[in-house]
Amino acid sequence: MRVGLLHTVPALAPLFHDLLRARRGDLDIVHVVDPALLADTIAAGGVTDEVAARVRGHVESLARAGASKVLVTCSSIGEAAERASADTGVSVVRVDAAMAGTAVDRASSAGAETGRVGTIAVLATLEATLGPTVRLVERALTSADVRVTATLVPQAAEARADGDGATHDRLIAAAVGATDADVVVLAQASMAAAAGGDTRVLTSPESGATAFVDELGAVV
Questions:
Q1: How confident is residue 26, by pLDDT bands cut at 50, 70 and 90?
Q2: Strands 146-152, 183-186: pairing kind
Q3: CATH code of the domain occupying 97-203
Q4: Within 10 A of 177 (CB to CB), how many other CB atoms are there?
Q5: CATH number of 2-95+207-216
Q6: What is the DSSP letter of 73?
Q7: What's the chain's Rg over C-alpha atoms?
Q8: Which phi and psi angles does 163 have, rounded to 5°?
């Protein structure tokens, strides 16, 4: 079975390739990597119509190449991915969709157990990612009694851009430790390495890959 992956961070291509193949060894995976999508989204403060059109173009290209389903691994362009799916009819999965649902379930359960409102803290290193992820989590709330907060981790993105992964991870870990939320959502797949052993933390690579492969069972 051939599937497509759209990335904006080059380092995520081999990571997700291995995650998917570990879950389903017969997959024929086609990758598209376009860092300019993220750079332009950051520069504009969000997804522009031009970025959305390029995302749609990549999705259509992957479908023409024979991909039966497409996984978009960048949370910053997640809403553009949903628009592309609606516009083209191609099955597109946001990498953070499964994580959002799990976050709501866990926070709701934690609140019910203690007789209070459950809490979710969404952390991001990029302002362009924070809004889309928070909106995704809030959309998953439905009737759940859960409060969602959003925090930008200062200087982490700059450290990563400078090649200082250790500082990037340390700043994120400090932000995780500073919140008392029931659930902590790391909005970007590139933040996953900073999760540490805190059981409250949810990241998108593992959950996104698992959900994507699970959905393939319904694809003919």
A1: very high
A2: unpaired
A3: 3.40.50
A4: 11
A5: 3.40.50.1860
A6: -
A7: 17
A8: 85, 10
